[in-house]
Amino acid sequence: MEAKDSKIVIHDVPPYIRVYEDGTIERLVGVEFTPAALDDPETGVSSKDVVFQPETGVSARLYRPKPAAAHPNKLPLVVYFHGGAFCISSTGDPKYHAMLNILVNEAQIILVSIDYRRAPEHPLPAAYEDSWAALRWVADHASGGATATEVWLREHVDFDRVFLAGDSAGANISHHLSIRAGSPGHGLGEMKIRGILMIQPYFWGEEPMGVEAENPVFKAVVDKWWRFVCPSDGGCDDPLINPFVSGAPSLDRIACGRVLVCVAGNDILRERGRFYYSVLRKSKWPGKAEFFETEGEDHVFHVMDPTSENSKILINRCAEFINRE
């Protein structure tokens, strides 16, 4: 334990978060906030925040390209889950906001970014449950249900072209929601998921894989991140973080026809992303898996600087995946 300002640290999870003995939680990164805007000066994209679950306060940030009236047909919808190891960042994070403005403009889509609750205040599986509630809220607009009150979804979305997307922890969420959507009686009504964008997915395991074994110090750090947000008996072989262990839901149940797995060449998580793609291709899932690797880049590089040349290439690849008929 260490003392800071006369307070005792009981959990130190660098570089993300500290928890003190008195219950105070100090997030060290991912705390900045930028408001939604009706006309982004760089892209012309409009955004707004909507609380869709008042009992928990869980909200979403909606994006639409400008001008929506210029589109004679309804647009694809992307439901996006941000990263942050389940414990930092938000839909208002300036880096995510900037990147998603660029993606929405490039792909000409409607996008719903989900602000799920974070650990440790809300340990897993809270983020999964909030994200599933968000997906059901979106699906209600496809059938004109009682909660279908959001005009941007009702008037501008083609619900035959719905995609799940996320980076890091958000890609992990996308995987689990797609499995849940492939189960009988899933509750998504008329809405069907066309594809999933898995961007540098956050999967892990107790046994090191590939280059993970070359860096045992960093392996121990990533182990600690997961055990902090999900204090389960399964540790890093909990099926939530390791979809390849015995007892994990079968990838055969993924509820879409296409999956794009993107990894970064310098990212320690790349081994799991590559393996996920390989296992998916060999599974009985009847869809088409695609793979895209960006050499020389690290984890979530496209969020850190969405205007770099490699970020533009990755975002363009995602836009092409969404709009391909």
Automatic annotation (TrEMBL):
UniProt-listed SUPFAM superfamilies: alpha/beta-Hydrolases
Recorded superkingdom: Eukaryota
Pfam family, one: Abhydrolase_3
Single GO MF descriptor: hydrolase activity
InterPro entries named among the record's database cross-references: AB_hydrolase_3, AB_hydrolase_fold, Carboxylest/Gibb_receptor
Domain Alpha/beta hydrolase fold-3: 78-302
Family per similarity comment: Belongs to the 'GDXG' lipolytic enzyme family.
PANTHER family: ARYLACETAMIDE DEACETYLASE (PTHR23024), CARBOXYLESTERASE 2-RELATED (PTHR23024:SF577)
Name of this protein: Alpha/beta hydrolase fold-3 domain-containing protein
